[in-house]
Fold this protein.
Amino acid sequence: MALIAEARLRGMEVVISALTIIEAVHARTNKSRLNWVLSGLRVVPVGDEEARAASKLLMNAGLHGHKYAIDAAVAEAALRQHRPVVMLTSDVDDMAKLCGERVRLVAV
């Protein structure tokens, strides 16, 4: 929450892929709190065009399969944003393969 607040103070838009919501939910997720957090973010959808672009990213990075599918969709969403783009991620290595130098990656 502190990182989101800091981004907003700096005038940055906070964007997540719709698929990130799937990754964030588990048995102990407080749904009310999640919905409150999401209300302050721009959630970008993943449709056919985005899925095809994410698939191309996977191929170009030499990755494939379900292990990297959500990462590819998140990377594709990041690459569509106005520059500069900063991505907070727990998987810097895979995101670096998918985004290259076009997105600044920050480990969380």
The chain has one domain: 2-107. Residues 48-61 form the longest helix (14 residues). The helical segments are 2-9, 18-24, 31-39, 48-61, 66-79, 92-99.
